[in-house]
Each structure stands twice: as structure tokens, then as C-alpha cells.
Amino acid sequence: MFRGLPDQYDRLAEWLSFWQNRRWRAALVDAVAAGEPRLVADVATGTAGVALALRARLGADVVGFDLDEGMARRGLQNVRAAGDAQSPLVARSPAPGAAKSTVVALAVARGEQLPLADASVDALSFTYLLRYVDDPETTLSELARVVRPGGVVANLEFAVPESAFWQALWRLYTRAVLPLAGLVTGGGPWYRVGRFLGPSITEHYRRYPLDWTVGAWERAGIGEVTVRRMSLGGGLVMWGRRK
Ligand SMILES: C[S@@+](CC[C@H](N)C(=O)[O-])C[C@H]1O[C@@H](n2cnc3c(N)ncnc32)[C@H](O)[C@@H]1O
């Protein structure tokens, strides 16, 4: 799915979302910041955009995990570009405004099976992950497992607008415009993403409506769950606290 995407991912993720992705990402980082974590896990980190935003905002150490080696390699280039590389997997640099040097480390790993001990991180973010896993409920339990009690868990995901009017426009955009815009801006791989994305979002919420998802967070041991719909309902940021 992600082959052929990494080189243009950072640019096209913004263009094709009308620069809303960066707003959603900022809201996600705000939610994580509320817990004042010192060590954050970012799952499905991709090209490390969220991981770098977390470090820049929080001055926290961040460890990012992604299933796809190509995306993680691109992430590593981005981490290196933001600091001075120390090793193939780890880059260190002072976060802007932070007194201490911080680390962004990246590893290839599945969100369903994180190579972390129980309660080993202060907070966890995951972005555009649950549509790709076979069993969202079990995956949520695994994500919650690694967060210490009281730590923030936060998620960013696409969503289907609630109002009939915006939903109709969203459908038109995702089914007709997005594949063509993907083709024109990024070629074949982005055409395929453009065709995949709308049906993937619709199908995900058909199988796992938002109410179900909030319940699944609770069952996974994440309480105080808050949902924020953004950009006319096309973006969704959710966060809660590990019980
Ligand atoms: C749309 S990208 C988002 C990347 C990044 N979070 C961002 O917002 O820029 C989704 C990422 O999820 C990763 N992914 C998909 N399934 C995964 C899984 N089961 N475990 C870990 N990462 C996964 C993909 O490899 C891809 O890099």
C-alpha cells in the first residue's frame, strides 16, 4: 500500500487534505502535551512528522514505530534533517526551546505487537492506524498496555462528516476528485491511494462506528475519552488517559 509514497508523502498529505492534516496533527500534539510526558511512543509514525512535532513542542524523547520500512527510512531522513544523526536508527538534536538534548528513535514494528514493556512510556500517539489492522480492539489493548497509568493516549484519523450536505461533498471529493488529484500530483501510487482512501474510511466506520470505538478505548483501559471532530467532520482527534 505504501510503496512509492514516502518521497512525496509529507507534501501530498498536506495538499490533498487542503492543509488540514497539519491542523489535526497540532490538535493531537496539544492533547499529548497536556500530560507533560518525557517519553512518548508514536505508532504508525510513517515519515515521522508527528514524532518530530511532538519533540519540537514538548522537548520530549519520542520513539516512533512503523510497519513499513520505506516509510520509516523516509522518517529517518526527516529526523536526520531536523538534527544531527548519531546512528542509523537514532538521531539526536536539541528541540527548539528545550534545555536538554532529546532523541527521536525509529523502529520497524507493528502496532499490534510493540517491542515495549508494560507501562514503559508516559504517553502514546497513533495516527491513521486502525483502518489498517485486522482487529482494532486488540490493537487498542496493545497500545494501552505500554502506557503508564495516567498517561495520555491520543489518536488522529479521518472521519465521515455527519451533516448530509458535507457528507455529499466529502463523498464527491474522496470518490471522484481525490484519485485524479493523486494521479496528477503524485502519479500511479497516489492514484491508488486516492481510490483506496474514501472507501476505506467509509467501510471502517460502517464496521466500527464512533460509539463503538469510544467503548473499545474504555475496554482497553483508556478513560476520560474525548472526541474532537475537525474540518467539517473530515478529521477526528481522540484522546484519553490510561486508567
Ligand atoms: C497514512 S500513514 C500516516 C503516517 C504518519 N502517522 C503521519 O500522520 O504522517 C499510515 C502509516 O501507518 C503505517 N501502518 C499501517 N499499519 C500498521 C501497523 N499495523 N503497525 C504499524 N504501522 C502501521 C503505515 O506503514 C504508514 O506509514
Can you describe this structure?
The chain has a single domain, classed as Vaccinia Virus protein VP39 (Rossmann fold). Helix content is 45%, strand content 26%. It contains eight helices and nine strands. The protein has helices at 6-15, 20-33, 49-58, 69-81, 136-145, 164-186, 188-207, 210-219, and strands spanning 39-43, 61-66, 84-85, 90-94, 101-108, 121-127, 147-158, 222-230, 235-242. Helix 2 packs across helix 3. Mean pLDDT is 90; it is low at 84-95. S-adenosylmethionine binds next to helix 3 and strand 2.
Number of strands: 9
Spans where pLDDT lies below 50 across 5 or more residues? 84-95
The shape, in one word, is globular
Beta-strand content estimate: 25-35%
The residue-averaged pLDDT reads 90
Whole-Å distance between the termini?
35 Å
Q: Please identify which CATH superfamily we are dealing with.
A: Vaccinia Virus protein VP39
Radius of gyration: 17 Å
Cofactors, ions and other ligands in the entry: S-adenosylmethionine
Give short descriptive properties of this protein:
243 residues; alpha/beta; Rossmann fold; 8 helices; 45% helix; binds S-adenosylmethionine
Give the helices and strands, then pairings.
Elements: H1 6-15, H2 20-33, E1 39-43, H3 49-58, E2 61-66, H4 69-81, E3 84-85, E4 90-94, E5 101-108, E6 121-127, H5 136-145, E7 147-158, H6 164-186, H7 188-207, H8 210-219, E8 222-230, E9 235-242
Parallel strand pairs: 1-2, 1-6, 2-5, 6-7
Antiparallel strand pairs: 3-4, 4-5, 7-9, 8-9
Helix pairs in contact: 2-3, 5-8, 6-7
Bound molecules: S-adenosylmethionine (SAM).
S-adenosylmethionine is lined by residues 2, 13, 43-47, 49-50, 65-68, 71, 110-112, 127-129, 132-133.
